[in-house]
Amino acid sequence: MYLPSRSTFLHMRFFFSFFLLPVYLFALSQAPTMVVTNAVLVFIIWHFFIYPASNGYNSYFDKDEGSIALLEKPPMTDKSLYQYSLGLDLIGVLLSFIVSVEFAIATLLYGILSKMYSHPSIRLKKYPVISFLVVFIFQGAFVYWLSYTAISGISILKVWNLSFFIAGLVCSCLIGASYPLTQVYQHKEDKKRGDITLSVILGIKGSFAFAALLFLLASVLIYWYWQLEHQIRNFWLFLLFIIPVLVIFLKWLLEVLKNEKNANFKNMSRMTLSSGTAMLIYFLIVLLLG
Q1: Whole domain around residue 276: which residue ranges?
Q2: Which long-range contacts (CB under 8 A, 24 or more apart) does 222-227 make?
Q3: Is residue 1 a part of any domain in this protein?
Q4: How does 59-74 read in b/e, with b if 16+ C-beta sit within 10 Å?
Q5: Rounded distance between C-alpha atoms, residue 246 and residue 17, angstroms
Q6: 160: Cβ–Cβ under 8 A, 6 or more apart, which residues?
Q7: Is the per-residue pLDDT at 2 higher than 70?
Q8: What is the pLDDT of residues 118-166, one digit of tens each?
Q9: Residue from 46, 85, 45, 87 nearest 62 by CA
Q10: Which residues neighbour 263 within 8 Å (Cβ) at sequence distance 6 or greater?
Q11: Which residues does 276 contact at the CB level (< 8 Å), separation at least 6?
């Protein structure tokens, strides 16, 4: 196979995995035991194979002309993007068998759903509630639960308890809170393609309200989780890291209330980068504190 084009490499958006890394770090910090080989493989599989494959596949069928996540001016896609996205997906699934059959099934399921999300014959992205739930569940709780069990070297069937369940919901709520905000500047292009996203349904102001409500729910759940784990200091640490993110969110909201044109790519990128960085550092500290 020939080398990927520059366009293909950019559309894989490897750096976007940065924003999903907090879910893995949370799972790593809470795993009761660590199989080191599994921990390394799980990180590599998600962030260098499965996520970029999903990004590339989505971009290939979207063929965006306007800005998309991390790409203000996306280049034209070519056939190699389709081929490499499938190739990365296949390698990721095959590597997953080294971890466990259970984890391999999980990565395969994630890959199938990401293709259903984008492919024109199904295109879950056209359906606002279904597409939101796919992202909410599978980029959040699903990745947390499967990473936690894979890192620990145990079956997901043997670990269910209230803390485990709530931790997954925390991840889903944090992912879900950012989801409509990443779509808030794309309404025109989404409608042109026939994609009725959640943000389109909610409207610009409604997207901000929805994000705020889900983030509030995430905060309540994370407080509950750390109470159950008798580590309430980690909740106060969470508040410390989230304050600057809230300031940026409120500043952006006020700008949007004055002029909806401020719901643009530049402001969305700043919001996404600040929240992603804050959560990354937070969960990294939680990991280091043990």
Answers
A1: 6-289
A2: 222/170, 224/166, 225/163, 225/166, 225/167, 225/170
A3: no
A4: bbbbebeebbbbbeeb
A5: 22
A6: none
A7: no
A8: 888 888 888 899 999 999 999 999 999 999 999 999 999 999 999 999 9
A9: 85
A10: 184, 185, 204, 256
A11: 18, 19, 22
DSSP class per residue in 165-183: HHHHHHHHHHHHHHTGGGT
| Average pLDDT score over residue span 233-250 | 96
Distances, alpha carbon 179 to alpha carbons 75, 132, 146, in Å = 23, 8, 21
Given a cut of 80, whether residue 256 has pLDDT beyond it is: yes
Q: pTM for the complete prediction?
A: 0.93
Q: Domain of 253: which CATH number?
A: 1.10.600
Nearest to 220, CA basis, from 238, 233, 202:
238
Q: How many domains does the chain have?
A: 1
Banded pLDDT at 76 (limits 50, 70, 90):
confident
Judge whether 25 lies within some domain.
yes
Q: What pLDDT score does 21 carry?
A: 95
Q: How many CB atoms lie within 10 A of CB 247?
A: 11
Task: Give residues with Cβ within 8 angstroms of 90, minimum separation 6.
Answer: none
The verdict on residue 106 lying in a domain is yes
CA of residue 34 relative to chain centroid, distance: 23
Q: Report residue 185's pLDDT band, with 50, 70 and 90 as the boundaries.
A: confident
Asked if residues 237 and 285 have their Cβ atoms less than 8 Å apart, the reply is yes
> Residue 14: pLDDT above 90?
no
203 pLDDT tier (thresholds 50, 70, 90): very high
Q: Tell me if 117 is assigned to some domain.
A: yes
For the chain, the straight-line distance linking the first and the last C-alpha, in angstroms and rounded, comes to 44
Angle between helices 162-178 and 21-30 (to 10 degrees): 170
d(CA 118, CA 58) in angstroms, rounded, equals 5
